[in-house]
Amino acid sequence: MGKTVCETTVQIRNADGLHMRPAMQFVDTANRFECDITVSNGENRVDGKSIMQISMLAATCGTSLKIKAEGQDAEKAIIALQELVELKHFDEPTPGDQEKL
Amino acid sequence: MKFVDFVCFEAIVPELTARDRDAVIAELVSALDKAKRLKRGKCDEIIDAVIKRENEASTGIGKGVALPHVKHAGVKDVVAAVGKSSVGVDFSALDKQPVYCVILLVSPVDNPDRHLQAMESIFRHLQHEKFRKFLRQSSTAAQIEDLLREVDENPSLL
Questions:
Q1: Contact A51/B117, CB-based, under 8 Å?
Q2: Does residue B56 belong to the interface with chain A, where contact is any CB pair within 8 Å?
Q3: pTM for this one?
Q4: Residue A99: what pLDDT?
Q5: What does the alpha-carbon distance between residue B64 and residue B60 come to, in Å, rounded to a whole number?
Q6: Which residues of chain A from 5 to 64 reach within 8 Å of chain B, CB to CB?
Q7: What is the CATH number of the domain that holds B31?
Q8: Is the predicted pLDDT of residue B3 greater than 70, yes or no?
Q9: With contact defined as beta carbons under 8 Å apart, do B149 and A50 qualify?
Q10: Which residues are CB-neighbours of A45 under 8 A, at least 6 positions away?
């Protein structure tokens, strides 16, 4: 059986960006899966399961990140991570939310 | 961002007297206050805010390091204090191990990007085992300052 490779690009939309708490949520989610997960901001490609490395991306609001998963459950991992970043926004407000207040 | 851009060298505590997490936070925030990096009268408020943040989720990221932090109106720009404990402090770290190096960061509320840049700079260095080792071995404020300046100037050392 060949190795499954899945890739997607997500945009950070919560106003505070990928600070420590969201970074921990990302790493927690990534660690639920067997597959290898890497994240790239165009300059650096880092291990999606390491809090130190994910925090190093310093992804501000508006930054695009490419997530790559390799392994049996790669597809599920990509779906879960995309949901966390782009649908849940790490349960944090986006700039649009703040304008509505 | 470089360490010199946000680390307050007057707030380096080479041997923390505090033995528990909350007291360590208080010691480091007080060091920033003493160095006049906090707005007047905000010290206690900031201590409480850092502890509250720490209670939500530990910033003890493992490998003997903790990065307590908070966004607070009591600072104009991102500022950090550095503390070390040779006996180790319980920060309820992710790897359940004691913490020997604490970098405490206070960021203004209205500039999340700058907070991220400071964190990036801290993590970029902390991920190197050599840096963590050097930091742990530095026993005076001057040695810690030298180390931080050196990796700023010459990141390839790590």
A1: no
A2: yes
A3: 0.91
A4: 58
A5: 8
A6: 15-21, 24, 50-53, 55-61
A7: 3.40.930.10
A8: yes
A9: no
A10: A38, A39
